[in-house]
Specification:
mainly alpha; 2 helices; 75% helix; elongated; transmembrane; membrane; transmembrane helix
Length: 52
């Protein structure tokens, strides 16, 4: 393999790791959000937001 192929493989592996890390981070964020769900009192009177 020449240098270009090596660089391509390296970039591909880097993107794979980046995406996997992002998914892992997003998954933990979702778990945190589920565990610390805000009380329903914060969503009072949604018709004001809809009225614009």
């Amino acid at each position: 393999m020449d240098l270009g192929t090596w660089v391509g493989v390296d970039w591909g592996a880097g993107w794979v790791w980046l995406v996997l890390g992002w998914f892992e981070m997003a998954e933990s964020e979702v778990l945190v959000l589920k565990n610390t769900r805000p009380p329903k009192e914060r969503r009072v009177r949604p018709e004001i937001d809809l009225g614009g």
